[in-house]
Specification:
single chain, mainly alpha, two-stranded parallel sheet, two-stranded antiparallel sheet, disordered N terminus
Length: 409
């Protein structure tokens, strides 16, 4: 930034945003390398992580076999498409972040595309004959900071979203215990990711036997995988994720407030601003539309049912196999209640609601179906797409049973 630029609040923002605009503007839907690099850096705290211990993989493979047998017995469903066996992939935090980003990439690119304003909405094209058209950095004097913010977001929204995504996934990796920190389908695979270092730290923090906790985590992820790997469940969730992403728009005012509130005393350099934009909250306040709100309600109903179903399966298996299940269950509940801002931002980006209250509603729905119709009725929950519960049915399991048993029209 030029040294003669005035340092009032507006001029400071305009100069810094102009510099970042030149640096990061891109036509790609999502600068993938930016997201991956930032995620891995945050996940590992910028340090080199030791390789996972092969003994952890061997121990977890044995527990996975036990978990598969129990989950198949409780659910009556195959744990993977085609009845294949699952395998454990022990990872570091940084590797968990990279693989999770790759698994969620199609949805993340949809979100990045939705968050990018139309090219002509906030940027001026270069004059004809000047080569490839592109956004002009100079701001309209009358528009001031607000005009530059709009132009800036149109030009480098993909880079901003990449930093935001990389930040939240990196922070998720710091606490991830298994593959399904978020109940989102991943590419067809028979592998389950586990971060042994995080699981061991969690067991120590809560004075839990590591073998019992490891079996609990294996059962939970196998139960989630048995549902999320079903083609019609995966297709429905991906459709709703796309719909909610296409309906949200960035809020320049929220960004301006975030910048102003986060650096009241000024900022050292462009790197400080870049890191700020990767922090939780930079694009967290989104403008919803009727389409995105409807998709989010349906998505919440389905994911709550999935999480509640996995809770019931895990608790059922734990009753048979794990002596201290109540201590583990309480520790996992506290972990959700005490989740950080980054988890909340991750959920907002995907349109999810994973607060404990939402999971409790899902578990109440599952137990309500069992009380009214038994395991035979519950077994119909994941058989076809039409049987997935609606938001109103999640609160009234009797209505769901009645609907799915109606004769064909």
């Amino acid at each position: 930034m030029s040294p003669d630029v005035p340092q009032g609040p507006g001029s400071f923002f305009e100069g810094m945003l102009g510099d970042l605009l030149r640096l990061l503007q891109t036509r790609a839907p999502l600068p993938w390398d930016v997201a991956v690099q930032l995620a891995q850096t945050i996940a590992s705290d910028g340090a080199s992580e030791p390789n996972t211990d092969p003994a952890d993989r061997i121990r977890l493979e044995e527990l996975l076999g036990v978990a598969e047998l129990h989950v198949a017995d409780v659910t009556g469903m195959p744990v993977a498409p085609g009845g294949r066996r699952l395998t454990i992939l022990t990872t570091t935090r940084a590797e968990w972040a990279r693989r999770s980003l790759e698994g969620w990439r199609p949805v993340l690119e949809q979100i990045a595309t939705a968050l990018r304003p139309p090219a002509g909405a906030a940027a001026k094209d270069e004059p004809a004959g000047s080569g490839e058209a592109g956004p002009v950095v100079e701001a309209d004097e009358e528009a001031g900071l607000e005009g530059l913010l709009g132009q800036w977001m149109a030009a480098i929204a993909p880079a901003m979203v990449a930093m935001q995504v990389g930040s939240v996934v990196g922070h998720l990796a710091q606490r991830a215990l298994g593959q399904y920190e978020l109940p989102l389908p991943r590419p067809s695979t028979d592998e389950l990711l586990v971060v042994p270092g995080n699981a061991r730290q969690f067991a120590e923090d809560w004075s839990l036997p590591i073998e019992d906790l490891s079996l609990w985590l294996c059962v939970r992820d196998v139960a989630l995988h048995s549902v999320l790997s079903r083609p019609h469940v995966r297709a429905r969730i991906e459709l709703l994720l796309t719909r909610q992403a296409s309906g949200v728009r960035p809020d320049p005012k929220a960004l301006e407030e975030h910048l102003a509130g986060s650096m009241p005393g000024g900022m050292g350099d462009l790197g400080d601003l870049t890191r700020l934009l990767g922090s939780a909250g930079a694009v967290a306040r989104l403008e919803d539309t009727p389409t995105s709100l409807a998709a989010r309600r349906d998505l919440e109903a389905i994911t709550s049912a999935i999480e509640g179903y996995a809770e019931w399966v895990t608790d059922t298996v734990a009753t048979r196999s794990i002596g201290g299940r109540s201590a583990i269950r309480e520790a996992m509940r506290r972990r959700r209640v005490e989740r950080g801002e980054d988890e909340a931002v991750a959920e907002a980006l995907f349109g999810l609601n994973l607060e404990q209250e939402a999971i409790d509603r899902g578990e109440s729905f599952v137990r309500g179906v069992l009380e009214r119709g038994g395991e035979e009725e519950l077994g119909k929950l994941w058989t076809v797409e039409a049987n997935l519960p609606t938001p109103s049915e999640l609160e009234a399991p009797g209505l769901w049973i009645e609907r799915i048993n109606l004769p064909p029209a």
